[in-house]
Amino acid sequence: MDTSNKATFTFSKDKKSVEITRHFNAPLPLVWKAWTEAAILDKWWAPKPWKSETRKMLFANEGQRLYCMCGPAGERSWGLITFHDIKPQVGFAITDAFCDESGRVNNDFPSTHWEIRLEEKEGTNLVNVLTSSKEEDMKQLIDMGFQEGYAMALDNLEEWLRGQKT
């Protein structure tokens, strides 16, 4: 894998948000598809050796994705994403929360707001801004391995995108 093209994480001074950037050598419509179709999300969203399994997904404003992160030893961690402000081929926002398998949010864990923007420029540039309501919430996510896990998931996305080229 090309190690020169990795995700960059830049934390805000108040430590409540992080901007994540990554360039993909793929056309924007393909990157958009990878973010907006459940079957494709399941191929890259989880850091290996974990797997992502979507139980249901409606990519529409106020639509949701209920998914499970499945670990190699049978671990199961559920997440609920709610989609907002969809601008096709440009970006969208999500609220991401931990939940149970029925989609009931678990308030013992932080929820986050994401802004996801795509720009076609010699491939596709991805910019995510992830915001939590409190510094402690961001710290909890980082302590749980968010930065490493999300960087690995974006590497999985790069691998999937490369496999789509003919």
According to DSSP, the number of beta strands is: 8
Number of domains: 1
- Contiguous uncertain segments of 5+ residues: none
Radius of gyration: 15 Å
CATH H-level superfamily title: START domain
Query: What's the shape?
Result: globular
Mean pLDDT: 92
Main sheet overview: 8 strands, antiparallel
Euclidean distance between termini CA atoms? 18 Å
Strands of the widest sheet, in order across it, are 1-2-8-7-6-5-4-3
Helix content: 25-40%
Number of helices: 4
From the coordinates shown, what is the CATH architecture?
A: 2-Layer Sandwich
What is the CATH class name? Alpha Beta
Look up the CATH topology: Alpha-D-Glucose-1,6-Bisphosphate, Chain A, domain 4
Q: Strand content of the residues, in percent?
A: 35-45%
Structural class: alpha+beta
Q: Any overview of this molecule?
A:
- The protein has a single domain (8-160), classed as Alpha-D-Glucose-1,6-Bisphosphate, Chain A, domain 4 (2-Layer Sandwich), CATH 3.30.530.
- 27% of the residues lie in helices and 39% in strands.
- It has helices spanning 28-36, 38-44, 135-143, 146-164, and strands at 8-11, 17-24, 51-57, 64-70, 76-87, 91-99, 112-120, 124-131.
- It has an eight-stranded antiparallel sheet with strand order 1-2-8-7-6-5-4-3.
- The chain is globular and about 40 Å long.
- The model has no long low-confidence stretch (mean pLDDT 92).
